[in-house]
Amino acid sequence: MRNFSISPDLTPLYRSAIGFDRLAQLAEHAAANNGNNGYPPYNIELLGENRYRITMAVAGFSMTELDITSEGEKLLVKGSKANQKDERKYLHQGIAERGFERTFQLADHVKVIGAELENGLLNIDLEREIPEAMKARKIEITRARLITE
């Protein structure tokens, strides 16, 4: 059986939606296979209206072997195992000991506010901080003034 990769053509969206080209680029990026093979598994939770949490299963990694970098609208989580001469002979090795890189595309105004490692789970807390100028505001309606000549 053959697997076919279908790449959606979002060109019509570029032509008909003014100012939404970034949305189309994000959709194309999500549809593309960017090398993430599903390791390590992760969850994304909605904690509140503007609060999120990414939880990654990183069993076997210590805090010194994990690195989190936030640059612009990208969040990069890396795990690298130190090269150790291991003399153990496994009958079955089901616990992955390979390094990883996982990239998350953050929406506008989303900031990383903290991270913690507990029981093999890496929790990364995020919050969307909407600038005052972009928040909804009520516009007062006034009576029209009559112009007299």
UniProtKB/TrEMBL annotation:
Which stretches are transmembrane?
none
Protein keywords: Stress response
Pfam families, per the entry: HSP20
Location of the SHSP domain: 33-144
The reply to whether Transcription figures as a keyword in the UniProt entry is: no
Write down the InterPro entries for this protein, in alphabetical order: A-crystallin/Hsp20_dom, ACD_IbpA/B, HSP20-like_chaperone
Stated family: Belongs to the small heat shock protein (HSP20) family.
Q: What protein is this chain from?
A: Hsp20 family protein
